[in-house]
């Protein structure tokens, strides 16, 4: 049964004022100053110090009465830190021996405050202040008591409602501590711990989960909810980068070895059938054509002269066949060179959109015969090409549906059906080994050619536990080999 302690109106007002000052403190330094200095208006003492248990520095003396800030290297602060460490350990791991208890005193007043427990139970309550003398400390620390402190001291632990320790405050004076004063400090200790909790870092989700899963009905309910959620069926889906590509495009290749002289078409430009696309450098071929034309004229003249002499001379009649062969060879060379020179200019075999990279990347570039320069695509005939990484493959088969989410249109999506899946994974331009997936759009509206985005491939229904553990289990299996 709690024992009420009488407190007069004046002290109650000071207690209320100190509580308000503690809750209004903007920083830990301001709160520490209020604790060790302004508490003197409620309870008389000669020395006070606040020892902060948590980070940033475990066991640091954060504030000392009468000083703007404590010096960690001062002998008094070092001795005080050792004393507070001992007292804090006794608070979190209370010893069996009882703490000294003082006689309670009473005074007439208009209010009462609960002490939290009977005076004889103060030793078992971790929030109740503990009166100390030199005999309460180990011999190594008690030897220096008289050099730093008066006869009586009081340790006020700072523990919030979540059982987090923020250290404690120690007060020292010549007179013993009364039960009323201990009750006032017990109330202030709760206020100070509540104020310090506002400056402590937020708990991580792991810590909050541990508190939620504490033994009791909350833990059983949480485990039951988690167990039910893990067996809920969900669709096994994967995300893969995708691009809208042309369906059955016409590849325009280099007709012969050479250097590209000029690109007439522009990227994504609509071209009509027969429109010029690009041209190769014709300098070498023009020289060869001129030389072949000259050789053909020479061979033609030689054959004419030999044919005239063959009428009267049998020897020239024999050379006429040789001249005829040389003339035919020159004609073939001239015809071949003329056809090669005509192929220097490449025209569009059909209408479409010219798809290729920057023209500046092709001007002056040497190409080999058959090398792809661009392709002509029909804007109305498009398909979706997705790249499924090997690690994300979930047995994607033709006929599976997928949804394209374009990057340029966050509010638009397009449905498609998978037509083919590559049996062999290949490196993508980004260096990821993936399977190439081709899909046909099923809706009436199709995205423009060249649109890029993310494809969500819909798989079979699986339990949520399998959906969450599929990747970790696959990784463990690769490492462990089972």
TrEMBL record:
Alphabetical list of SUPFAM superfamilies matching this protein: HlyD-like secretion proteins (SSF111369)
TM stretches of this protein: 222-242
Keywords per UniProt: Coiled coil, Membrane, Transmembrane, Transmembrane helix
InterPro entries: UPF0194_transport
Gene3D superfamilies: 2.40.50.100, Helix hairpin bin
Gene Ontology annotations for the cellular component aspect, listed alphabetically: cell envelope
The organism's place on the tree of life at top rank: Bacteria
Cell compartment(s), UniProt: Cell envelope
Signal peptide region: none
Renumbered residue ranges of the record's region Disordered: 92-128
Protein name per its UniProtKB record: HlyD family efflux transporter periplasmic adaptor subunit
Organism: Trinickia dinghuensis
Lineage: Bacteria, Pseudomonadati, Pseudomonadota, Betaproteobacteria, Burkholderiales
């Amino acid at each position: 049964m709690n024992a009420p302690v009488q407190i007069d109106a004046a002290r109650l007002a000071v207690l209320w004022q100190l509580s308000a000052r503690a809750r209004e403190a903007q920083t830990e330094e301001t709160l520490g100053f209020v604790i060790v200095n302004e508490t003197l208006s409620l309870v008389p003492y000669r020395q006070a110090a606040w020892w902060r248990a948590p980070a940033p520095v475990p066991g640091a003396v954060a504030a000392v009465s009468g000083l703007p800030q404590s010096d960690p290297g001062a002998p008094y602060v070092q001795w005080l830190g050792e004393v507070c460490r001992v007292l804090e350990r006794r608070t979190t791991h209370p010893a069996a021996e009882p703490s000294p208890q003082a006689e309670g005193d009473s005074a007439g007043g208009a209010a009462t405050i609960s002490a939290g427990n009977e005076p004889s139970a103060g030793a078992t309550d971790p929030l109740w202040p503990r009166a100390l003398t030199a005999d309460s400390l180990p011999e190594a620390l008690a030897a220096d008591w008289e050099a730093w402190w008066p006869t009586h001291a009081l340790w006020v632990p700072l523990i919030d409602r979540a059982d987090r320790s923020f250290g404690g405050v120690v007060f020292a004076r010549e007179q013993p501590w009364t039960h009323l004063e201990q009750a006032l400090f017990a109330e202030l200790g709760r206020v100070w711990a509540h104020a310090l909790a506002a400056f402590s870092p937020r708990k991580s989700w792991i810590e909050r989960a541990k508190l939620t899963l504490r033994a009791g009905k909350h833990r059983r309910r949480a485990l039951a909810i988690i167990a039910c959620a893990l067996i809920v069926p969900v669709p096994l889906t994967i995300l893969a980068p995708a691009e809208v590509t042309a369906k059955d495009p016409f590849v325009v290749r280099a007709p012969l070895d050479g250097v590209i002289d000029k690109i007439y078409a522009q990227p994504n430009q609509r071209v009509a059938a027969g429109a010029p696309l690009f041209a190769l450098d014709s300098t070498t071929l023009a020289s060869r054509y001129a030389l072949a034309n000259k050789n053909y004229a020479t061979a033609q003249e030689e054959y004419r002269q030999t044919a005239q002499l063959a009428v009267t001379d049998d020897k020239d009649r024999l050379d006429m066949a040789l001249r005829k062969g040389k003339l035919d060879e020159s004609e073939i060379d001239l015809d071949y060179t003329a056809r090669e020179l005509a192929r220097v200019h490449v025209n569009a075999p059909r209408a479409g959109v010219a798809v290729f990279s920057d023209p500046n990347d092709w001007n002056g570039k040497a190409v080999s015969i058959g090398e792809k320069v661009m392709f002509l695509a029909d804007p109305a005939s498009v398909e979706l090409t997705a790249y499924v990484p090997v690690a994300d493959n979930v047995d994607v088969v033709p006929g599976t549906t997928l949804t394209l989410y374009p990057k340029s249109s966050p509010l638009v999506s397009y449905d498609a059906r998978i037509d083919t899946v590559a049996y062999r994974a290949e490196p993508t331009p980004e260096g990821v080994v993936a399977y190439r997936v081709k899909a046909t759009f099923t809706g009436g509206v199709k995205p423009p050619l060249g649109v890029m985005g993310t494809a969500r491939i819909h798989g079979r229904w699986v339990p949520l536990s399998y959906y969450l553990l599929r990747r970790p289990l696959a990784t463990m299996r690769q490492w462990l080999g089972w």
